[in-house]
Each structure stands twice: as C-alpha cells, then as structure tokens.
Amino acid sequence: xxxxxxxxxxxxxxxxxxxxxxxxxxxxxxxxxxxxxxxxxxxxxxxxxxxxxxxxxxxxxxxxxxxxxxxxxxxxxxxxxxxxxxxxxxxxxxxxxxxxxxxxxxxxxxxxxxxxxxxxxxxxxxxxxxxxxxxxxxxxxxxxxxxxxxxxxxxxxxxxxxxxxxxxxxxxxxxxxxxxxxxxxxxxxxxxxxxxxxxxxxxxxxxxxxxxxxxxxxxxxxxxxxxxxxxxxxxxxxxxxxxxxxxxxxx
Length: 251
Hints:
The protein is of the alpha/beta class.
C-alpha cells in the first residue's frame, strides 16, 4: 500500500506520516517513509537525532546535475535513478526505512526542471514498485498535485485541523486531484480536541473523515525530547492502525 499525505502547512502531515509508518512497522510490515517536503521534519518525528538526519537529495546539486545531464537549457528527461534508493535510505527503527527526498526550491525566475526530473523519476519509480509499503509526506499546499507526481499512490490523505484555512486548502487539493483523474482521496482530521472540533470539520468540509487523530500531550512531549512519536500514546497508535485497516478495505 502506498499512501501520500497532503495538506496545508502546519496541519500535522509529518505527524500523521510518522504515526502511520509506526503502525505499519508494528504490524510486521516493512515500510519506506519518504519525506518530500522542502523543510523536512519526518526524520525527527521518527526519532532520528539531528546530527544523523540525511541530507535531502534535493540539495545534492552535483548529483542532480550529473543525473539530469543538464547542458544549458537541455537535460535528460528520463535520468537514471534506480541505484539511488540503496544509497540514500536510512534505517529509522524496526521495519522502518527513511528517504529524505526534499523538494527543489528555486528562487527568482530560474527553472529547476532538470533537477525536478531526477526527483520525479525517483519518486515515480518508488511509487510504481509493487513490493514497497510507502508513506509519502508531501510538501504543503497544492502545487505538487499540479505537477502530477503522486498519481501512483493508492491513497491520498488530506490532513486537516479544525480551522477554516486547512479545510479551504483541502478543497483545492481535492479539486486538483480530480482534474488529474485521481479519485482515491480521503480526509483525515488531526489535532481534534473534542466533538465540537470534529463536527466543525465535518460541517465545513462536507466530508466524513476516514481517520481521526486526537490532540496529544504525549506526542508533543516526545517530539520536544527528540523521541519517536509513535508508541507513546496508545490512543493515537490505535487511530493509526484503524486508519490503515480502513484504507486496506478500500484498496
């Protein structure tokens, strides 16, 4: 099963990603967690110390230049990437491997098409692999959907919190995904404190969330202490396991 996690910045995409990766691992499955955010945080939430966090592949300029074979405005649109996973995966706990992909942030009017071709090919290769269980923590917003890079995911989860801004972004993501012909979208509620929060999300979105993650002091404490956030709050661990069961039933 390959799950992509989207949503507005700050809604807890990385938190949900880490909890789902932990739930997969706890069930005995081997999972690859991919952080494709320009400001990656997933390694920390999986308990990897700051000094051991891998450098995002998106920041490896020499590697990207070599693989894209860029020559002025010309570059290889199908660069070689099949050797990169073995080189840049990192063990992040029992049954969990991490790859920090990152995302190209191009300032000014320049074009990062060549560099993005390498990242896109790598991500597509992983998503199309039949043997990988994947949790993909995407960048914030909707632009990645516009590039069509996650069409290979079995499920796209849009994380929202009980705020109008996050639900408005979820609506834009949903519309773009439909424009791309992607139908396997589901809403996940995060940071829910009470029934009022949940009802607000339902009313504002018009959608019944497939998963609900309560606000958790234990998770906040683990994150501050640099510990893995899965396995510290039984209620959230159950929420992650239940969400995986529901997704499996619809695959």
